[in-house]
Amino acid sequence: MELPSGIKIPEDKIAQFCKKWAIVKLELFGSALTKEFNAESDIDFLATFDPDSKHGLESYLALGELSQLFSRKVDLVSKQALLSSRNKYRSQKILSKAILIYDRT
User: Fold this and answer.
1) Taking the chain (105 residues) in consecutive chunks of 10 residues, what is each chunk's mean pLDDT?
2) How many C-beta atoms lie closer than 10 Å to residue 50's C-beta?
3) What is the pTM of this model?
4) Counting beta carbons within 10 angstroms of the beta carbon of residue 85, is it exposed (0 to 12), middle (13 to 18) or buried (19 or more)?
């Protein structure tokens, strides 16, 4: 899959990554979905973790692995944390524009 920004999503590697880190759904949001994306931009991911998994410290390890996969800085946001956010406007904006790139359900 290739995005308008030119980012290529290695679907097989994303599936392996998500299985390893107990991610049920992985979505992209932010500048990576637009033509404004540039060499300085990071890639923003929204992760729905398996409810039975623990993803505290492991989230930081997953972040590093995801960064290596795309050879650039990434942000990994928990969907549960986003849904619990007090900034409902920001949450809704992200959710309305995010695109699904992996779904284990």
Assistant:
1) 78 93 94 88 92 70 85 90 91 94 92
2) 14
3) 0.86
4) middle
